[in-house]
TrEMBL record:
It comes from Actinomadura namibiensis. It comes from the Bacteria. This is RNA polymerase sigma-70 factor (ECF subfamily). InterPro entries: RNA_pol_sigma-70-like, RNA_pol_sigma-70_dom, RNA_pol_sigma70_r2, RNA_pol_sigma70_r4_t2, RNA_pol_sigma_r2, RNA_pol_sigma_r3/r4-like, Tscrpt_reg_LuxR_C, WH-like_DNA-bd_sf. One of its GO terms (biological process) is DNA-templated transcription initiation. Keywords: Sigma factor, Transcription, Transcription regulation.
């Protein structure tokens, strides 16, 4: 964002007044980050695109009821995305078998490599998500916002509407359970420090840029 660019706070105040251009600027600024978050949670880049659209549609619909609590709109967008993903997961359980039988889109020689890379990323993410899915819904949300999105305790608390202390305790528990499930050794953490993205050491995955 250039020095002349309006801040998220300034843009959001205009959005609350119905300014679609300001909303488009916020979309351009944050859509890729929301998309990557949805991809990491679904391991499906097509679904991630659809879910990103739903997140911003819901954000626009609720614009007059939300006031920003930080300098960035992202924490609140993550909260909207978490709810959208929860609803998606419930629907996915009902339709998983049918979706699995859908044919892959046809590709040309020019985009075959890109498609193969995306599908490989999906396979990697599904393996990781198989373990993450065994966590509770709230623990999953906290873990992914911390490990993959790099949010601070306060930002996670804002996104999910919970206390910072709850974030700390549930994140520690989620990491411990996930490492045990994956057979990974525990990592020591210096007292008073937040290990940014600690579990991502083991969860390398493609990020769409």
């Amino acid at each position: 964002m250039s020095p002349q660019s309006p801040t998220d706070t300034e843009l959001w105040e205009r959005v609350r007044d119905g300014d679609r251009h300001a909303f488009g600027t916020l979309f351009d600024r944050h859509a890729r980050t929301v998309y990557n978050y949805c991809f990491r949670r679904t391991a499906d880049w097509t679904a991630a695109e659809d879910l990103t659209s739903v997140v911003f549609l819901e954000t626009w619909r609720r614009r007059d009821r939300v006031r920003m609590e930080s300098a960035s709109l992202l924490p609140w967008l993550y909260g909207v995305a978490a709810n959208v993903l929860h609803n998606h997961r419930r629907g996915l359980r009902r339709h998983r078998d049918a979706l699995a039988r859908l044919p892959l889109p046809e590709t040309t020689a020019d985009d075959a490599d890109d498609t193969a890379a995306r599908l490989d990323a999906e396979r990697q993410m599904r393996a990781v998500l198989a373990s993450i899915d065994r966590l509770s819904r709230r623990d999953r949300e906290i873990l992914t916002l911390s490990a993959w999105e790099g949010l601070s305790y306060q930002e996670i608390a804002t996104a999910l509407g919970i206390r910072v202390g709850t974030v700390r305790s549930r994140l520690a528990r989620a990491r411990e359970r996930l490492r045990a499930d994956l057979g990974l050794p525990a990592e020591p953490v210096p007292p008073g420090r937040h290990r940014e993205g600690g579990t991502t050491t083991y969860f390398a995955a493609e990020e769409i840029s």
